[in-house]
Structure formats: C-alpha cells, structure tokens
Design goal:
elongated; three-stranded mixed sheet; alpha+beta; 13 helices
Length: 368
C-alpha cells in the first residue's frame, strides 16, 4: 500500500490517534512501514528522472534499486549500501556524476591522494643523507610562506587550482597530467616532448642554463643495449627524455646515424661540463618502470654503477679501442668501431652549427 494513502486514512480518523491504541499503531507503522521505506531491512527504491541521483546521495539497503519515471523496469544495484544512476559512477557508497574535469567533486580531494603518493615516491628515491620529504619541507620547496598554505588542501578535502598544482611539476618534475588533471597511471611519466631520435637535438634546443647535468642509464631493451638520458635541473627535479637511444651494433643507415649522434651528445655534453660521467645500469624491469614513470628518475642513482663506461666509450682512437678489448665485451668494441668509422662525416656536416646552438643555449652568445 502506498505510504501517502496510509497517512490519508489515518488522518480521516484523527480523533483516535491520541488514544493508547493509536499511539501503539503509529509506533508499529513507523517501525515496520516507514522504516522499510528508508531501506533499513528491506528493498529500497528511489524515483528519479532518467535515473539521475543527486551527487553525493547515499542509498542504504540490502537490495537497492533505481526506478526511472519513463521506464517501469527498475535498475538493480547490488550490495549493501551501494548507489547508482544512469551514466554515474559508484565509489565507496557515494554517487559521482561523469565529469571530465573532476569525477570525484563530492568525495575527498584527489589532490590529497596524489600528494601522498608523490611524497612516498620522493622519499623512496632520496639518498641516505638527504632530508626527508615532509609536508613542511615540501611547503618550503614550492615557495609557500608557511605550511598551512598546503595543509588546507590536505586536511579539508579541497582541490587547489591548476597553478598551485603546477608548482609540483616545476619543483619535482612530477607529470603534469597526473598531478594537475588526475590523468595518467604513473606520477613521474615524462613531461618532455621529444620529437625524432637524435639526442644531439637536446643540446641544440634545450635551455642549457637551467640544467645542472645529464645522467646516462644503460640497459637492455628487446635484447639489445640502449641508453636513457635524464636531465637534472636541480637537487629535486629529475626528468627523463621519453626515448630509448641506440647503443648496440645491429644498425643500418639510420641506426648508424643515431649511434654516432649519441656519441656526439656525450662528447659535447662532457665538454660543457653538463655530463655526469657515472653511468648507471638498469635491468629490464627497471628500464620499463623508469620509462613509464613508476618511480622518480632520481632513483637511478641507487642503481648499479658501470664504472669507466663513459670515459672508455668516448675513447675511439684505434689504440684506445684495442686497449678497451681487455675490459669490455665484443659488442662494446663493435659499437666503438662503427662510431670511429663515421664520426668525421657527421662532424664535418654538423659541428659548426651545433657549436653555435650550444653556446647560445648556454647564454654565451653565438660564435662570431
């Protein structure tokens, strides 16, 4: 029986309501009918236009349904305390409308969740003598006058504006899509747009004044040796160039160019004192995680060190290569021989222009 009809019948005989019998009857109705209407121990129904439930509503009951006004068939919602709506998302018993910009506008701030993840990853990559990343320390690094400017977003479930969130991109190299817009899977996926495969383009196009050094990581990709390049802007900001650079001898015409240009990148970066001459070695899993952004690129400084790799690699005179045979494998020597046979041609074509670009990017002006 409809609840409105029940109350109508009761009110017609309202004189008996205040009797002892009336009070007992009303108590029974409240417990077993109105209570059931709220979904305490029975089916729960919600009438709504096009199955839209207001953001943040909670439906509690053992069997919940959404009934559309233009459709007599109810939509079942499984599980105790779940909620639903046509085109909506169910999370933690709260309904969220599909919104491209903020799917969880009525739940806890996405920012607070992402901040905790970021803090954990930064601390995982820090050296033993490096200061711990705390809310207070991070506040000072992003230029806030006091910690309350950050804590307000972490404790009051508020989402800061985009400009505030971009501070973490600039200071820590966190992926912008991830920290600002909540898109992307991993926090440290590269922000760098890098077209083509020529590592010399880094020196030709980057503002070298803001880069402290370049770090080289070596590892196998699909069974062959490749290299990754990380730029360190300062003590907190490490970013990976989202490319694997050829470092093996199985090359054709274009592969030879990429190999020689990688050598030229190392040589020129070393000349301008922007190259960390320590090479780090990554296994297959580490290479994949580094490229996907699962951990901070700074963490490579904890990897195995390939001592003398870069120093010996850049020694490509015939006598130097012969000497290297005592320390390095056959593949290392084959790569050096390919570079030695082609380096003069690439220097002849590009060297003068490259030096002008590099000096300009260092803020030293062009060569006259």
């Amino acid at each position: 029986m409809d609840i409105d009809k029940i109350f109508s019948m009761i009110w017609k005989g309202k004189q008996w309501i205040f009797s002892r019998v009336g009070v007992m009857i009303l108590s029974f109705i409240g417990k077993h009918i109105i209570g059931r209407k709220k979904g305490e121990n029975s089916d729960t129904y919600i009438m709504c236009d096009n199955s839209n439930v207001s953001d943040g509503n909670i439906v509690i009951g053992k069997r919940n349904y959404i009934i559309q006004k233009d459709n007599s068939n109810p939509i079942s919602v499984e599980g105790n305390g779940n909620v639903a709506g046509n085109g909506n998302n169910v999370t933690n018993n709260i309904i969220y409308t599909n919104n491209a910009h903020n799917m969880k506008e009525n739940a806890n701030s996405w920012f607070s969740e992402r901040f905790k993840i970021m803090l954990s990853i930064l601390n995982d990559a820090r050296s033993f003598n490096e200061k711990e990343y705390t809310v207070e320390y991070v506040s000072s690094l992003i230029g806030l006058n006091n910690v309350e400017g950050l804590k307000i977003y972490l404790t009051q479930d508020r989402e800061p504006d985009d400009d505030f969130k971009k501070k973490f991109v600039d200071v820590f190299g966190v992926n912008q899509e991830w920290i600002v817009y909540g898109r992307g899977k991993f926090p440290f996926a590269s922000n760098i747009t890098f077209w083509g495969n020529n590592p010399m383009d880094i020196l030709r196009r980057e503002d070298l004044k803001v880069i402290n050094k370049f770090i080289i990581v070596i590892g196998e990709v699909e069974g062959r040796r490749h290299a990754c390049i990380i730029r360190q802007k300062n003590e907190t900001c490490y970013e990976l160039y989202p490319k694997y650079f050829i470092l093996h001898s199985n090359v054709g015409g274009t592969g030879t160019k990429r190999l020689v240009e990688f050598y030229r990148f190392l040589r020129e970066a070393h000349k301008i004192k922007k190259l960390d001459c320590t090479a780090y070695v990554a296994n297959k899993e580490q290479m994949n995680k580094l490229m996907s952004g699962e951990f901070s690129p700074k963490k490579v400084e904890w990897f195995e060190v390939e001592r003398n790799f870069i120093d010996d690699f850049m020694c490509i005179r015939e006598d130097e290569i012969e000497k290297n045979k005592r320390f390095w494998d056959e593949e290392f020597i084959l790569v050096q021989k390919i570079i030695a046979a082609n380096i003069k041609d690439y220097d002849r074509i590009n060297q003068e222009c490259d030096l002008k670009c590099i000096k300009k990017n260092l803020g030293e002006g062009e060569i006259s």
